[in-house]
Design goal:
- The complex is a heterotrimer.
- Helices cover about 35% and strands about 25% of the residues of chain A.
- Chain A is built from twelve helices and twelve strands.
- In chain A, helix 4 crosses helix 5, helix 4 packs parallel to helix 7 and helix 5 crosses helix 7.
- Chain A has an eight-stranded mixed sheet with strand order 6-7-8-3-9-10-12-11, sandwiched between helices. A four-stranded antiparallel sheet of chain A has the order 2-1-4-5.
- The longest helix of chain A is centred in the middle third of the chain and has 18 residues.
- In chain B, helix 4 runs antiparallel to helix 9.
- By secondary structure, chain C is an alpha/beta fold.
- In chain C, about 25% of the residues lie in helices and about 20% in strands.
- Chain C has nine helices and twelve strands.
- In chain C, strand 11 and strand 12 form a beta hairpin.
- The longest helix of chain C has 18 residues.
- The C terminus of chain C is likely disordered.
- The chains are: A alpha/beta, B mainly alpha, C alpha/beta.
- Chains in contact: A-C, B-C.
- Chains A and C meet through helix 7, helix 8, helix 9, helix 10 and helix 11 of A and helix 5, helix 6, helix 7 and helix 9 of C.
């Protein structure tokens, strides 16, 4: 395996609350290999979006701060970069797209201008070259008639086209990594299928590496190579997609899979995970999933399970993994 | 988005300590002091505010008269203290009537829309077509000078701001899910308006009324200054300034002290408006 | 077919909105035909799924049934009474017997009212229980939806999304409805919470004999929950039938497309390599002929002109498509295809 293109080690992000700092993201580690689509799965409040914004040091509020760990982009530490390097990183090396293209595209600038602005900011090229690049990148994301579309404003695009346009802006400077934060949640299923297809094409054709944040395991199954499952600000299980979906060892991962309404016989109750996802103010002790876990025992509420490799590429943080023989807590 | 929604839902009436900011407490403090002063005027005022002392005309601040006396020999401190009663009354009544009328009219226009909305909006346009002060002066001139006329004029002119605020809020909230839910549960229009729309729409107006109080205070003072409001010899800050202005080069204290009183009261309302706005999450 | 008389009969319902009024007098304002001739019948105790993408008019339809939108044309018969043109009294009766559950769990509850007050208000306004019984009934309702009676003192802002949605369901149940219209009622919830709400709805349905119109874009949930499904596209129902029949042997290419586009959790069930192009078009200017033809891989010339296709198939399961279902629905065996004709 080649050197990872992006590598997180023990990244922690805290939020300042009235009761003092609280960890939103707690020692999260994962690698993104070149040409990989990594699914980052979790429910609301799992810290998946915050993790990815921390990756390019774009934390949404000043009360959030990175409190530890390291982020290596091609071996270079992101957390200590100066502003100049950081600006090159954002957009130049790592592009980002969001759930809602309407609020992340500038409504008073044409799509062409938004792409050209990014190109001209990152590469000192003339207007003509920037325009050529804009046409190229619009073609790349499958927007028909790109020459004409350059002069359109975001509101003149349909929902799916707007998401494509946002991807085009993110790809303008040919980044190596695309962070996609719930990119299809606001879209209709047929359009979602188009955007997922586009992301996979970008990976296959242009070698783009993608971190895909989602709550939908179906999307993970259809488009991701690797999966990291987050719960309560921690990664509880990570591994190759087929391993995670087919042979999940963490009760939370298995619970999420069993929750899919298609998994239960018609008319029978759907399997559920009881209780609510934890909130920042009230994180359970030990393993954060233990209050909702059917397998929980005393050790689960006392000590935090360490991340252990089950296989070279399958890591798990659980005291009593599914399918393991009964007995005392795993060392 | 989820977070934003839940903070909106959480921003209820929480005037407990610990939730607000410095401007809020400062504003509440200043207003509290003035309300106390007005309440205790007979106790704390050292002199009768309209008692003339021919022996002590235009005397500068001294131990005997802390803020000096005016050209009739009346104690400025006592007049400012008694004036607080009149000026606070002006603020309260000058705001409450427009607030009530505006909320009522704006609510009806926003909720029912259609011809009612058209009618009230055109009425608002007509009122807004005249300069505020000119219209007020015209109304007072017709009704005759005095505080009653002033309040009536304020009510006739000032309601438009409140009506527009409430109407805008109603138009937005009318389509909110919880209002649609109330309609779908078969509640009548009055219940939907009073129980569901109004409590959620009124905050902006409450905050605005605090800054409006400043305007009303200054208007009241201006009207009195022009001789159309409170009549002498009643102690009122606007009149005091008007009376003192011919002595401004020789006896600054006659105008400066009531002037300072007006500024501090206005500031109190302003700070309270800011603090409340911040606390309740209202954007003006 | 059910022997009972239908609870709700909607015939040729149309809801139009006028957009973009022009400054110039005489210039035509644009008409959005959000719901354009929809007929649907719901029997007591039956759950009908209404699926479609944005702009299909499924939410507008649900709101129009409750008269939250004024219908432009058509009939809405609730227990035999036409409420589309009903008196205020008819509408009040309708709203006492039909309740709605909304998508946004926080937004559908008044943020300044406690849950208990919101429930008590329903009971008081409709005089459902004696005044002194109200607190007990509030507690019962909260227990019924899996909350604690103590939640009565909370405000929506102090509860999680799932708890708010349960409170919303409790409020809907407070009027003891016969029909519930659930508009995307789990779409805003976390996956692990969605299942809890679906189970609650299934349990309540079984216990109270509720009829339900379940409006959703999530086909997997609809398949699990609903007896019948109606698929909407651009303000029209393009296919209607028993759930399993619709999912296994769709009679309209749009339904087939929609089903194929759901990302399956089984990685071996791949998404189609070439998903249908384009977005759902705007109801502002629907295409002539079959509204789906610009995105349909099977469209022939006849699809592109004239009016929308008439329903074909049988009364129980029909699709508004000119083509025989075996063209776009491989599981449709030509030999068990009923003789196609207008319904």
């Amino acid at each position: 395996m080649s050197e990872p293109i992006l590598s997180l080690r023990e990244l922690s992000v805290s939020v300042e609350t009235r009761e003092g700092p609280r960890a939103l993201v707690d020692r999260v580690s994962f690698d993104l290999e070149p040409g990989e689509i990594l699914g980052l799965v979790g429910e609301s409040g799992s810290g998946k979006s915050v993790t990815c914004r921390a990756l390019i040091r774009l934390l949404p509020s000043s009360s959030l701060s990175v409190t530890g760990g390291s982020i290596l982009s091609r071996g270079e530490e992101v957390l200590t970069m100066d502003d100049r390097r950081l600006r090159r990183l954002r957009g130049g090396t790592i592009g980002m797209i969001f759930q809602n293209p309407t609020s992340h595209l500038d409504p008073v600038m044409t799509i062409g201008d938004q792409i050209m602005e990014s190109v001209r900011f990152h590469r000192s090229v003339g207007k003509k070259d920037a325009r050529a690049r804009a046409i190229e990148v619009l073609t790349q994301v499958g927007i028909p008639d790109p020459v004409h579309r350059l002069t359109n404003f975001p509101h003149e695009f349909s929902g799916g086209m707007r998401q494509r346009a946002m991807i085009a802006v993110a790809l303008a400077c040919d980044p190596e990594v695309l962070i996609a934060d719930e990119p299809t949640t606001a879209l209709d299923v047929t359009v979602q299928a188009q955007i997922l297809r586009l992301l996979m094409d970008l990976r296959d054709r242009d070698g783009l590496s993608i971190i895909l944040i989602t709550h939908d395991l179906g999307i993970v199954a259809q488009s991701c190579d690797g999966v990291a499952v987050m719960y309560g600000g921690r990664i509880c299980e990570r591994g190759p997609m087929r391993t995670i979906l087919g042979d999940a060892k963490h009760p939370y991962t298995a619970g999420l899979i069993a929750c899919q309404p298609g998994e239960a016989p018609k008319g029978q109750p759907v399997r559920t995970i009881p209780g609510q996802p934890p909130t920042v103010g009230a994180m359970p002790s030990g393993c954060r999933f233990h209050p909702r876990c059917a397998n929980a025992r005393a050790a689960c509420s006392e000590t935090q399970p360490a991340m252990v490799a089950l296989a070279p590429d399958h890591d798990l943080a659980c005291h009593y993994p599914l399918g393991a023989s009964e007995g005392g807590p795993r060392a | 988005m989820k977070a934003a929604r839940s903070t909106l839902a959480r921003g209820g009436w929480r005037l407990s300590f610990g939730g607000g900011s410095l401007p809020l407490y400062l504003g509440m403090g200043i207003l509290g002091i003035w309300f106390l002063v007005a309440l205790l005027a007979p106790v704390i005022a050292p002199y009768d505010p309209i008692l003339q002392d021919a022996t002590a005309r235009i005397s500068p601040p001294s131990l005997e008269h802390l803020f000096g006396t005016d050209n009739f020999g009346r104690d400025i401190l006592s007049r400012v203290i008694w004036g607080a009663r009149v000026d606070l009354q002006i603020c309260v009544f000058g705001v409450i009537f427009p607030f009530l009328i505006g909320t009522f009219v704006g609510g009806l226009a926003g909720f029912f829309g259609g011809w009612m909305d058209n009618l009230f909006m055109r009425l608002i346009d007509i009122v807004l077509a005249f300069p505020f002060l000119v219209l007020m002066l015209a109304i007072i001139a017709i009704l005759g000078p005095g505080l009653g006329s002033f309040y009536l004029a304020m009510a006739l002119v000032g309601w438009v701001s409140y009506a527009r605020l409430i109407r805008a809020q109603f138009l937005v909230l009318k389509n909110a899910d919880f209002v649609q839910a109330a309609v779908s549960l078969g509640y009548g229009p009055i219940r939907v308006m009073v129980r569901h729309l109004l409590p959620n729409a009124i905050l902006g107006s409450v905050v605005f009324s605090m800054s409006d109080a400043v305007l009303v205070l200054l208007n009241g003072a201006a009207i009195s200054y022009l001789g159309l409001g409170v009549q002498p010899p009643t102690a009122e800050w606007g009149i005091m300034i008007a009376e003192g202005q011919s002595f401004i080069s020789t006896a600054w204290w006659i105008t400066a002290v009531p002037g300072f009183a007006i500024v501090s009261l206005a500031m109190g309302f302003s700070l309270l408006a800011d603090g409340l706005g911040e606390l309740l999450g209202v954007k003006e | 077919m059910t022997q009972e008389s239908p609870l709700l009969e909607v015939e040729n319902l149309e809801v139009h909105f006028h957009r973009g009024r022009s400054f110039w007098p005489g210039a035509k304002s644009k008409t959005v035909r959000a719901v354009n001739g929809v007929s649907l019948t719901v029997h007591p105790g039956e759950t009908v799924g209404l699926v479609g993408e944005s702009g299909s008019g499924k939410s507008t339809f649900g709101r129009a049934v409750l008269r939250l939108e004024a219908p432009t044309a058509g009939l809405v018969l609730f227990e035999g009474v036409d409420v589309a043109r009903g008196t205020r009294g008819d509408i009040a009766t309708l709203r006492r017997r039909t309740a709605m559950i909304f998508q946004d769990p926080y937004g559908s509850l008044n943020p300044r009212m406690t849950i208990g007050d919101a429930l008590a208000e329903v009971l008081r306004v409709h005089r459902l229980v004696p005044v002194d019984r109200i607190p007990d009934r509030v507690g019962e309702l909260l227990t019924l939806v899996g909350l604690e009676p103590a939640h009565a003192t909370r405000k929506p802002g102090d509860m999680s999304g799932g708890q708010c949605q349960r409170a919303g369901i409790a409020r809907a149940l407070a009027i003891e409805p016969r029909l519930i219209i659930a508009d995307e009622c789990v779409a805003a919830l976390d996956v692990s919470i969605q299942g809890q709400i679906i189970n609650l709805l299934m349990e309540l349905r079984a216990r109270m004999g509720l009829a339900m119109i379940f409006i959703a874009h999530d086909l997997a949930i609809v398949r699990h929950l609903c007896d019948r499904v109606a698929v909407m596209y651009l303000g029209r129902i393009v296919e209607e039938g028993p759930t399993e029949a619709v999912f296994t042997a769709p009679r309209h290419p749009y339904t087939a497309t929609l089903i194929a586009a759901i990302p399956d959790i089984n990685p071996d069930h791949r998404l189609p390599a070439d998903p249908p192009p384009g977005d759902p078009p705007s109801p502002m200017n629907p295409p002539p002929g079959c509204p789906f033809h610009p995105r349909c891989a099977f469209a022939i010339d006849d699809c592109r002109g004239g009016g929308p296709p008439t329903p074909k198939g049988d009364r129980d399961h029909w699709g508004a498509c000119l083509l025989p279902p075996s063209v776009f629905s491989p599981s449709f065996q030509p030999n068990d295809e009923p003789p196609s004709g207008d319904v």
